[in-house]
Amino acid sequence: GRAPSLCPNGSLRRLVAEHVAFDRLEHAAISLHVVTTDVRSGEEVVLSAGDPVDAILASAAIPAVFPSVRIDGRDLIDGGVADNAAVSQAVALGADVVYVLPTGYACALDDAPSSPLSSALQALTLLIEQRLILEVAHFAERTDIRVLPPLCPLSVSSTDFRHGALLVERARTATGRWLDEGGPRLAHPERFLSLHRHSINLNPCHGGQAA
After folding, report:
1. How many other CB atoms are there within 10 angstroms of residue 23's CB atom?
2. How far apart are CA 82 and CA 101, in angstroms?
3. What distance lies between CA 207 and its chain's CA centroid?
4. CA distances from residue 143 to 50, 56, 63, 71, 140 in whole angstroms, order as listed
5. What is the pLDDT at residue 142?
6. What whole-number percentage of the chain has pLDDT above 70?
7. pLDDT at 38
8. How many angstroms separate the CA atoms of 53 and 197, rounded?
9. How far lies 130's CA from each of 27, 105, 118, 141, 142, in Å?
10. Which of these, 133, 132, 174, lies nearest to 154 by C-alpha position?
11. Which of 114, 117, 112, 125 is nearest to 84 (CA)?
């Protein structure tokens, strides 16, 4: 059809507006910078002032899933297309310590993606992961970067939202264990982001062993 995306962003807008407690990005209690991508030029656009709801909607505008958001004459989409973790932006803004909370990717799918959307999103997450590995390795030499290992194994497709609550709980448990084991101080943080796959069937919401 002629729709610019599979889903409108009206419901997401209402959800964000309900939880954002400030009316301008520059009024946030902690300095907040939102990374987006100009859909026409591919340029990275960092939003540090203006409407926070529009900024977050733009940052969440996964290509083909949600529509772009026009801000100051530019059509903006998910910043992950240009710079997923925005480590370079954090360093440029003067951060001494950078925490990276990667979502990872579905490394334990039973089968290859079967729809155009799931295929596109799986490819996008793999591209993002590759860039993140290089970026973390590059900046780890000059900045204290701490990478929370993403959930692994993960057999839930990017288009499957049925297991959200269980995945959140699994992530909470994994993060607590990482903190208890001194994870923030572990060397070579990029090693937690290596591309790989698993060749066994796994419960989509629980861990397993790599083959």
Report:
1. 10
2. 17
3. 21
4. 29, 26, 31, 32, 5
5. 87
6. 93
7. 97
8. 36
9. 34, 11, 18, 18, 20
10. 174
11. 125
In sequence order, the β-bridge partners of residue 112 are: none
- 156 φψ region: left (φ > 0), alpha (ψ -120 to 50), beta (else): beta
Token pair of 90 as six digits: 């954090």
Percent over 90 (pLDDT), the chain: 62
The first and second tokens of residue 10, run together, are: 């009206």
Contacts of 70 by beta carbon, 8 Å cutoff, 6+ apart: 76
For residue range 200-209, list pLDDT tens digits in order: 555 544 454 3
- DSSP secondary structure string for all residues of 46-96: EE-SS-HHHHHHHHT--TTTS--EEETTEEEEETHHHHSS-HHHHHHTT-S
Distance, CA of 179 to CA of 182 (rounded, Å): 5
Name the residue type at position 172. Answer: R
Give domain limits for the chain: 1-83, 96-211
Written as one letter, the residue type at 190 is E
Structure tokens at 5: 């995306």
pLDDT in tens, 52-72: 999 999 999 999 899 999 999
Residue carrying the six token digits 């709801």: 53
Q: CA-based Rg of the chain, rounded to a whole angstrom?
A: 18
Instruction: Confirm if 139 and 92 have CB atoms less than 8 A apart.
Output: no
Q: Which of 58, 140, 133 is nearest to 102 (CA)?
A: 133
